[in-house]
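Support request, please re-run this one:
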Amino acid sequence: MLLNELKNRPIQYVKGVGEKRSLLFRKLDIHNLYDLLTYFPYRYENRQSLTRIKDLKFNNEWQTIFGTVMGYDEFKAFKFKKVLKILIADETGHLSLICYNRHFLKNVLKQGMKLFLSSSKFVRRYNEVQTADFDYELMGEEDEEFLNIHTNRIVPVYRATENLSIRLIRSLIYQHLKETVNSIEDPIPEPVRE
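Re-run finished. Output below.
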C-alpha cells in the first residue's frame, strides 16, 4: 500500500473515531487516515524523567511534573475579579496554578485527580511556586497501554480542540501507525535504497 492510499479512508471510518468525533477532527483539518498519521506534534515532553516540585527550575525551560489536585482557593484581583487557584502536590512539595478566566478548570481538575502538568513559566511568588501559563493532561486508567503511550518516554504533544483531548489524538496516532507502518511501501526504489 502506498502512503497516499490512506487518503481514501475517511476519518469517520477510522477505528476509534466515528461520526461525532470526525466532526471534531475536521476542526483540526484531519479528514482521513493520511491526515491523522501526518498530523505532527507542536512539541515534545520528556516524561522519561519527570521533575519533582522541589526541583523545579525557574529558567523558562519546559518542565513536567506528575502530581495530584489537592484543593482550590479563590482570591480577588484586578478590580475585584475572582481568580481561581488550584493546589497541586507531589511527594516533595506543592505548587499553585493561577487560573485567570479559567474557572471551568474547577470542574475539570477535581480534587484527588492525578495529572501531568507542563510549563516553562514556573515562578516563586508570595512564598510559593506558581504558574499561570500551563498545559495539563489527566492521567487515565493505569494500564500497560497508558504507560507505553503517555509516560516513560518522550511524548508528542498535539494541538487539540474542545472535546478532543491530546491523549486521544496521541493514542489514535500511535495505534494506527503501529497497524499501518509495515504495510506501507517505501516510495524510494530498492536499487536506490541499496
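The chain is about 25% helix and 30% strand. Helices lie at 18-27, 33-37, 105-108, 144-150, 166-180, 190-193.
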